[in-house]
Amino acid sequence: MKREKPINVIVLKQGMEQAEKGGYALGSFSPRYTPMIAAVLRAGQKTQSPLIVQISSKELVRYSITPKEFADEFYACIESEQITVPVVLHLDHTKDMAVIHDAIAAGFTSVMIDASEKPLEGNIADSREAAEYAHRNGVSVEAELGMIGTTDFVETDHDEELYTDPQEALRFVNETKVDALAVSCGTAHGVYMVKQPSIDYNRLQAIRKLTPVHLVLHGGSGVPAEMMNKAITLPGGGVSKVNIATDLELAFLGALGREERMTNEACRSLSPEDLEKGRAAVEAAVTDKMLNFLGCAGKAESFDYQTNQ
């Protein structure tokens, strides 16, 4: 049975088109624990920011959550928190089409197929298959070209980095028909320990000039605000979606005086006082990103729901 979605729960393509037009980026926030979804949504409502709530395939496994459990909590919070700002429910880094099928059935409005470790032909084939299935079901698709490094292996399982080639991006987008493209241009997943973040702005501009789809920057945690602002506001269109996950979990664990990750069930078993303490920290972290990092605060008021649905 197909889930009925509120008008403000939108597909990624619609959100990114509005973001590029408005000169801001959508924050794609991964709460990782279902009790933290409410905190992310509260920050969006408070700052009147369009936003994305996401979880990756590896996070689903690591935190012992199913796509349906995550989606059910998301939609319950949309109602209970009286969320009216535009929101996308996004499945991040996924290699398995079965997980994509489950997420779409559960009510996700966007999915990401990540076949970036494959040769170009294999990446194109997998991404095309995902796009065809998702589009038949009214869902947006993100794919990755190049390799985005990682420091903690929560989202991806490779730490090598391979920058996205603009000419390959042109072919990739034309042949796959994906709606969004995650590009590798200097950022990495996780916490920057030795390597410092950098962004190849010329590469970003070259890719955006050649391709009709909007660009995604993974590894937003730890990138200086002025660096990100330049990437978002590049002439001709820059980055329209920025993934932020690690900063939220660090804020949550820090508020509780913990260092070790927990399962989703363990998080749900916390006392009401600890849960609210964690939620307050996550809400503050997301609010800070919206106000000082993404340029999206206040943009919900001018969001056009009639465009590109």
UniProtKB/TrEMBL annotation:
Gene3D superfamilies in alphabetical order = Aldolase class I
Report the superkingdom from the record. Answer: Bacteria
User: Which cofactors go with this protein?
Assistant: Zn(2+)
Q: Which SUPFAM superfamilies match?
A: Aldolase
* Name the record gives this protein: Class II fructose-bisphosphate aldolase
Q: Which NCBIfam families match?
A: cbbA
